[in-house]
Amino acid sequence: MTVPEIAKLTGLAEATVYRRIRLGKPIEGPCQYGPEPKRYNFRGEMLTAPEIAERTGYSVSHVRRQISGNTYLEGEAARANFDDNFHPNCVLLTYRGKTDSISGWARRTGIPQYVINERLWRKGWTIHRILTEPNNAKPKTIRKSINRMVQGFRASTDRHSIIRMVKLFQASQGNITGKEGAAPCTR
After folding, report:
1. 159: Cβ contacts below 8 Å, ≥ 6 apart
2. What angle do CA 35, 53, 71 make, to 5 degrees?
3. Which of 30, 115, 176, 183 is 20 to 30 A from 54, alpha carbon to alpha carbon?
C-alpha cells in the first residue's frame, strides 16, 4: 500500500502519514508529539500535575508550587519545606522566638503587609508594638483629610476652617471622643 492510499483511507494528510512513519508513531488514531508529561510522587502513585490537581481540588498552579523535586508535598511537609528558604534580601522579624518574613507575619497576625512595613520603616516602632497593636485605619483617614485641607489652605483667616482642622487633628490624636471630633469633610 502506498502513502497516498493510506492517507485516503485514514483521512490524514500525506505529510502527516510520512511524519508518523518517519517517527515510528502509529498511523491511525491520535498521536502525541513532544516529551512525556512529567510525573510526580503523590500518595504512592506517579501522577502528572493536572491529575494531582483533579484529585486534590486545587488549581494546577497551586499544585506546581507544592512540588519539591519529584514529590508533591502536602500539609505540614509543604509548609516546612518553604519556611527556611527565605530569599537572601528578605527582611526577617523575630518575635517571641519565632522568625518569619514580613508577609509571614502579615498572614499570622492579620495585619496588612503594608501596615507592618510602614510601622517598621517609617514610624520606627518596636517589633512587639508592630505585631501586637491592631490595625486602625481611621486616624490615617482623618490625617489624610487634614493634609488635603492644609494643601488648599492659603494663609486664610477663615475661622471655621481653622476650627474644623483643629478638631480633626484632636480626633486623630484621640483627645476628643464622641460627635464633636467627627466633623464632616467637605470639599
Report:
1. none
2. 65
3. 30
Decide: helix, strand or coil at residue 139. Answer: helix
Distance (Å, rounded) from C-alpha 97 to C-alpha 95?
5
Same domain, residue pair 127 and 154: no
Half-sphere exposure (Cβ direction) of 179: Cα atoms closer than 13 Å: 0
Name beta bridge partners: 71.
41, 68
Instruction: Determine, yes or no, domain membership for 153.
Output: yes
Q: How many domains does the chain have?
A: 4
Same domain, 78 and 96: no
CB-count burial class (<10 Å; 0-12, 13-18, 19+) for 13: exposed
The pTM of this model reads: 0.35
**What is the domain extent for residue 10?**
1-34
